[in-house]
Amino acid sequence: MPRTADPTDIPERLLAAGLDLFLNQGYNATGIQQLTDHARVPKGSFYNHFASKEAFAAAVVQRYAELMQASWERMMGDAPADPMAAIRHVFAKMLRYHDRLAESPAGCLIGNFAAEIAVSSEACRQSLLAAQLAWRQRLAGLIAAGQAAGEIRGDLDPIELSALTWSVWEGALLRMKVERSVQPLRDSVALVLDRIYPPTAIRP
């Protein structure tokens, strides 16, 4: 197994392996030996960097949250200036991402772990909560801007509308995995953006 003098090499390889395996097969189905084999590092090195599998999972969630932040920034980099158009742009990008994975949908690590280990691991629950709240806060900022521009209904708090959107999206991701189709995502996004977001006076 190749080694380098970089002290961050092994933990970085483990985190990358953990993200891949946890996304595609879950927490409970992934063992330490499988993680180290996938990362191509000695099994004994795992506990030199992580106190337990639970602590490692919490670190993987934090890494996933960082990737979500970076992805959001890339999407916003070429998004329209108009707030509602920017929201549609973000969801169109996410839909295209999941459409490419339709044959083997991994879903979202936050939603997957929330169902699998949030109850049994407080460390993971806290990491999941932080990641979820960060995503919702980013969307809430666009919603608030859309409300100020008169494009989005103003009778709901931006944080509440963002939380509802997260719940709908994550529920649709679960349906996507069961149905092996991105159609639940498309239908759910259309319902939220076309029927729930518009101001009451112009909502169809």
Structure notes:
With 204 residues, the chain is an all-alpha fold. It has two domains: 1-50, Homeodomain-like (Arc Repressor Mutant, subunit A, Orthogonal Bundle), CATH 1.10.10; 54-202, Tetracycline Repressor, domain 2 (Orthogonal Bundle), CATH 1.10.357.10. Helix content is 70%, strand content 0%. The chain contains nine helices and no strands. The chain has helices at 9-25, 32-39, 46-49, 53-77, 83-100, 109-116, 122-148, 158-179, 183-196. The model has no long low-confidence stretch (mean pLDDT 91).
Describe this structure in a few short sentences.
The chain is mostly helical and 204 residues long. It is built from 9 helices and no strands.
Based on the structure given, which CATH architecture of the largest domain is correct? Orthogonal Bundle
CA gyration radius, whole angstroms: 19 Å
Largest sheet: none
Number of discrete domains: 2
Portion in strands = under 5%
Can you identify the CATH class of the largest domain? Mainly Alpha
Structure annotation, total helices: 9
SS-derived structural category: mainly alpha
* Oligomeric state of the chains present here: single chain
Beta-strand segment tally: 0
Approximate helicity band:
over 70%
Per CATH, the superfamily of the largest domain is: Tetracycline Repressor, domain 2
